[in-house]
Amino acid sequence: MSTPAAGPALETSGLSKSYPTGALHRGRRPALEELTLTVSRGEVFGYLGPNGAGKTTTLKLLLGLLRADRGSARVLGVPHTERAWRHRTGYLPENPYLYDYLTPQEYLDYAGRLFGMPAAERRERSRQMLERVGLAESARVPMRRFSKGMLQRAGLAQALLNDPELVFLDEPMSGLDPIGRHMVKEVILGLRSRGRTVFFSTHILSDAESLCDRVALLRDGRLVTVGRLDEILRIDVSHLELLASGVDAGVLDRLPGLKARRALGERWSLEVEEKSLGPVVTAIQQTGGRVLSVQPVRESLEDYFVRQMGAKAAPRPGETA
Amino acid sequence: MKRILAVAANTYRETVRERVLYNLVLFAVLMTVSGLLMKQLSIRQDERIIKDIGLAAMELFGTLIAVFMGVGLVSKEIERRSLYPLLAKPLGRSEFILGKFAGLGFTLLVNVAVMTAGLYLTLAATHAAFDPNLLKAVYALFLALLLVVALALLFSALSSSLLAAVGTVILVVAGHFSDIIRNMRQVAPGTPDWLAHALYYAVPNFRSFDLKSRVVHFDPVAFSDLGWITLYAAAYVGVVLGLALTVFRSRDLL
User: Fold this and answer.
1) Fewest Cβ atoms closer than 10 Å to its Cβ: which of A138, A159, A228, B236?
2) CATH fold of A10-232
3) Nearest-angstrom CA–CA distance, A99 and B154
């Protein structure tokens, strides 16, 4: 089968999945509803959402571990139900279990055989991958002796073994120490610099913010938003943080545009609307106070996430708002 | 085919690393003790008893391995989620099932082969003549073990390890008493004929594979008999594996 080289790395259309509920499986609980999404080639795409939002369900549907109720998906231009694309992708599950009776070298050899790699290529690729994830010295240690972080590294090595065009990573930073997280970030950035596509789910928003070209936010199985970070986040200054000293608390009550205040010993940290900066500074100086610093504050991905997740759940299709 | 062999090789390696073949040590002890004790009996008697004990031990150990390793072949992989990164690679679910069957089948072959060699050595130590009929009984026993693996694999693809073990043990026990099922009306008079017949043919007939008493009593076993049980085993294993593939292909891996 021919596979188009251009076009999106991943596209889904109306992908939906529900799970049976109750002892007799009479009810259905929607886990993913009408997911329509496109991921371009070469981008690092962050798939965000709280626990139970449907992130792992999405990955399992794409990888054929679950069957969709409705909808379709194409991976690297090939319908996701076919096997043709699996030579060109990699997958790291969340908290991987990788046969504790094997060494990472043996596990990678096994994985390489499933890709149909010749023995020499398996040896060379395994060596390279173990070096890349920092497990070269533990290549012959049975994985039952590994820590959670080491297992995560071994899992990442098997996901990259076939030099995939598209990598699915389910919570890749989970269980890793700061050095491990740095290593994963380097791997992801390295993949991007070589034109590979990375689709990863994460709870760690700072990682998504520093790595992703675009993100999608999922809540209760439904896509809340998708786009570039600078499109999603409020790029404008949301407010100013002002540090002042020698200000009487009674004066603060009369300041215009003051959103919040916090005492820091003799000083005050004040949240002020941008348009009110002039009158606030004047008022502080006129009453004998001093403005020590003014800091513009922009919305972070975490602010956005909390704002979206804190909002009232949108009505499901067929429900009235 | 290469992917099936890769899964089979890994399954065999798992059984070795999990020390499944340690049962061979038990078997060796059993054979040595039998050999020493039987020296006091007449030649034909000790030969019979050693053959009987040897074949019974091979059946018992083999069945235990087939059931308790077999029921975890798929369900344990799902419960531990070790299957997910494998199926995300170009490995079909059918290839996975067939690889698992071949891997455990090979483990049992090694087990049975080593035990057979041990049994012959013990017989040689008691100055018994070489009996090729013993190999026929061992062959039939191995076919029965493959059937047990197929059943365990089917239940393993359907449910959890515990339920799979219960289902497999029930079928294996029922299969050893298939004559009782055929004559069920004598035990339970209200049973309809069709039900007794259906159960008799549905339950694997493990009695057909039991050539122990014939070999022990020096009754000849014709090659045509082996041909028939080979056909029966091939057909039954084929149907059961076909069911396992069908069930597993449509199963959601939660």
Assistant:
1) A228
2) Rossmann fold (3.40.50)
3) 22
Residue in B with minimal Cα distance to A154 = B85
Domain region containing B228 = 2-249
Q: Tell me if chain A has a CB within 8 Å of the CB of B13.
A: yes
Task: Say whether B80 and A158 touch across the interface (CB within 8 A).
Answer: no
CB contact, 8 Å: B85 with chain A?
yes
Pairwise CB contact (< 8 Å): B252 & A168 = no
Contacts of A19 in chain B (CB under 8 A): 254
Structure tokens at A123: 């040896």
- In the three-class reduction of DSSP (H, G, I as helix; E, B as strand; rest coil), residue A13 is classed as strand
pLDDT, tens only, B25-61: 777 677 767 766 766 665 566 778 888 888 888 888 8
- The answer to whether ipTM exceeds 0.95 is no
Which residue is associated with the tokens 């279990």?
A: A97
Q: How many residues does chain A have?
A: 321
Q: Is B254 a domain residue?
A: no
Contacts with A92 from chain B: Cβ below 8 Å: 85
Residue of chain B nearest A19, judged by CA positions: B254
CB-closest option in A65, A115, A168 to B89? A115
Domain ranges of chain A: 10-232, 239-297
Chain segment B89-134, per-residue pLDDT in tens: 999 999 999 999 999 999 999 989 988 998 888 888 777 777 888 8
Q: Which tens digits make up the pLDDT trace of A167-181? A: 999 988 877 888 888
Shortest Cα–Cα distance, B168 to chain A (Å): 24
Token reading at B75? 């369900």
Residue A63, Cβ neighbours under 10 Å: how many?
22
Is residue B141 situated within a structural domain?
yes
Identify which of A95, A101, A159 has the shortest CB distance to residue B14.
Answer: A101
CATH 3.30.70.260 assigned to domain A239-297? The reply is yes
Q: State how far the Cα of A217 lies from the Cα of B229, in Å rounded to an integer.
A: 60
Number of domains in chain B: 1
Per-residue pLDDT tens over the stretch B129-148 = 778 888 999 999 999 999 99
Closest CA–CA distance from residue A318 to any residue of chain B (Å) = 27
